[in-house]
Amino acid sequence: MNSFTLGRYIPLDSLMHRFDPRAKIVAMFLLMIAIFMPSGFMGYIGIFLIICIGIYASKLNLRFFWNAMKPMFFMLAVLLVINVFVVKSGEPVITISNFTIYWNALSQTGYIAVRLVLMIVITTLLTATTKPTDLTIALEDLMKPLKRIGFPANEIAMIISIALRFIPTLIEETQRIIKAQTSRGVDLQEGKLKEKVMAILSLIVPLFVSSYQRAEELANAMEARGYVPSRPRTRYRQLKMVGRDFVMLAVCMLVLLSTIGIMIWL
Amino acid sequence: MPIEIRNLSHAYHADTSLAKTAIHDISLHIGDGEMCALIGETGSGKSTLVQHLNALLLPSEGELEINGKCIYAHVKNTGLKALRKEVGLVFQFPEYQLFEETILKDIAFGPKNFGVEAEEAEAIAREMIQIVGLDESYLEKSPFECSGGEKRRIAIAGILAMNPNVLVFDEPTAGLDPKGAKDMMELFRKLNKEYHKTVILVSHDMEHVMNYCDRVLVMSDGHIIKDCPVKEFFRSSDLLRKLNINPPQILLLKDMCAERGIHIREDVFTIEECVADIVKEVKNHE
């Protein structure tokens, strides 16, 4: 159950959930840029504080964020090992027989770890408090200016929302085909390499066939109801930015500016 | 090789807050060569039950014994693959499980998985394609060139090729035209009568249940609420109405006759016998 924490929407009623999705996406970008400003320890304190407020305002369980971060630890461990062997500058920290670990190896890994943690918390905060449909609507709105230079914003948004919509369907379909092939004697866990390749093939081919078929049916159904990709579409749900959205954006902007300030100053 | 189910229960997502018991304490005996219908509303646990016969789902409580092989709850069961060879499970819309380049290869896929040599598996495929009512010219075609009904026959041939003793069909006539559905039911009758397979049919079509099956199992909310011979089950429409099942046409006709004072014997299930009874009754009146 917990393996799908990353990117999952948690329906709650909180301030974070009520923010305009466009404001949330822009705020996420601002904070992302702030994270990558080399403003040292001071800069991260500001970002950390604002994220803590965000978590508090989202009413989400801290455990949820912990679960989202778990897959990253393995990567960090690998990174630490590589840095320890490659980075040979700064003060030596500890020497074990002939091997010396230097301060820069640890601090660089630490920096990356802090950045990754902050990034994951921010994106989790966004996806956990925003419905996938709202996210696509917001993306479409944000991409609107790009239409002038011929960027197909409507189409991209439609593609994203269709893709999101069909993830559960595909999972269901996969499970169904696994069962059907298992009862024909396919063993997905054991067997020689050749048998395994065959087993995977017996899964992928039917999955592709039914996906193509479904795509074609969906396209026909959409066209039958008058869908033309390039034409402007109206929406039932209109997004509207209100005071609190601007306040949030202003605060995030302030954080970004202060990190830039710290970077230039120091 | 009978099927014996003892106090079987199954819960999905066991040990989580989402735990939901799909079937409760089911005990059932299905003898060799029976042709059983399993009916019930969507979500009544039919699919959960039949997937146990193939060990795709394992019992949460209770046990089942198929052809002497036992499956228990709470232990790690072995030899599931051998059991899958005994019970051929044909899922709803089985045409979606086709994947090979040629129909020959696809039908031979099952037996090969169970260790049959390639040549022998192809010989089996040649035999099976005829049993399901297609000719050998199909064998070299791609399964994706065929029509929906043909694909379904090919998929069924793929299951038959494993030579299971028990065949389970989950709504096999869904989406077929009336002629295709009738042919399909005739095929199942042939498999049952000529090849002596035990057939378990999950169906919503009462006409098929009445005309082709010998025994009816009704499921509701995870329980078997009725288990009786088909003749008894369709004796009167009152029972069916109580179970929320639409009676077949012939029962409706008998009801209408009864309203008009024409009595038709209870064990009449075909239109011809019904007509004969009506004629006799009318003559009596005159």
What does this structure look like?
- The complex is a heterodimer of chains A (266) and B (286).
- Chain A is mainly alpha-helical and 266 residues long.
- Chain A contains nine helices and two strands; from the N terminus they run H-H-H-H-E-E-H-H-H-H-H.
- In chain A, helix 2 packs antiparallel against helix 5 (103-129) and helix 7 (153-182) packs across helix 8.
- Chain B has a domain at 248-286.
- Chain B is α/β, with parallel strands linked by helices.
- In chain B, the strands form two sheets. Chain B has a six-stranded mixed sheet, sandwiched between helices. Chain B has a four-stranded antiparallel sheet with strand order 2-1-4-5, covered by helices on one side.
- In chain B, strand 1 and strand 2 form a beta hairpin.
- Classes of the chains: A mainly alpha (266), B alpha/beta (286).
- At the A-B interface, helix 7 and helix 8 of A face helix 2, strand 6 and helix 3 of B.
